[in-house]
Amino acid sequence: MALAKTQIHFGNFIVTSQVFHVTAYSFALINLKPLLPGHVLVSPRRVTPRLSDLSQAEITDLFMTVQKVGRMIERVYKASSLNIAIQDGADAGQSVPHVHTHIIPRKKADLDDQGSSDAIYSMMEGEAGDIGKHLREKLDERPKFPRIDHESRKPRSDADMAAEAQMLAEEMDKSTTNAP
Q1: Under DSSP, is residue 177 helix (H, G, I), strand (E, B) or coil?
Q2: Taking 70 as the threshold, does the pLDDT of residue 119 lie above it?
Q3: Residues 10 and 98 sit within 8 Å (Cβ to Cβ)
Q4: Given a cut of 80, is residue 136 above it in pLDDT?
Q5: Out of 21, 39, 98, 100, which one is annotated catalytic?
Q6: What is the pLDDT of residue 109?
Q7: Which end of the chain is more exposed for a tag (fewer CB within 10 A), N or C?
Q8: Is 100 assigned a catalytic role?
Q9: pLDDT in tens, 81-95
Q10: How many CB atoms lie within 10 A of CB 129?
């Protein structure tokens, strides 16, 4: 069951079932292929490609939502830190032309097998972080070329993402009732 009462778009993709938190101007959603467990996105409800296109109210709400969701993700995934990143425009690696903030829970030495904790940046910029490609592939179950991707990162099913969205929605409710 979708949390949102109306259809929610991420770029030209309908992501309503992946949404776990909605505010007046923003929404938080489950990532189809998270770089690390708990990797989620926060985006403004209005589809706009660049951060500079947002109104003051949208910017304020977006970053307040990032802060609130980040606290919950850190708690739920028992992280000690977060990567919070925006790829603002195609030349910065943005693959879906809709402002979105990545929230990635981190733990000590979680990417040592990739070289260091800084490996997250090359993961975001490379094939692994191409959200638009992953969403397009999900829509087209018959890709024209073989997929080249990190073997351990498989696209999640709609049911799996909806279940995680529901769990995180419940965790957001807990965060709201226990907020300082």
Answers
A1: helix
A2: yes
A3: yes
A4: no
A5: 100
A6: 84
A7: C
A8: yes
A9: 999 999 999 998 888
A10: 22
Please give the pLDDT value at position 177: 67
DSSP string, 56-76: HHHHHHHHHHHHHHHHHHHHH
Contacts of 58 (CB under 8 A, 6+ apart): 25, 26, 44, 46
DSSP category for residue 38 = T
Residue with tokens 């910065």: 92
Dmax over CA atoms of the chain, in Å, equals 51
Go through 61-87 and write b for each residue having 16 or more CB atoms within 10 A of its CB, e for each that does not. Answer: bbeebbebbbebbbebbebeebbebbb
Nearest-5° Cα angle at 97, 158 to 7: 45
**148 to 83, 96, 126, 134: CA distances (angstroms):** 25, 19, 11, 11
Write down the residue that tokens 């709201």 correspond to.
176
Stretch 7-17: mean pLDDT, rounded? 93
Range 94-121 average pLDDT: 86
Pair of tokens at residue 58: 């949208």
**Which has the closest alpha carbon to 175: 82, 65, 101?**
65
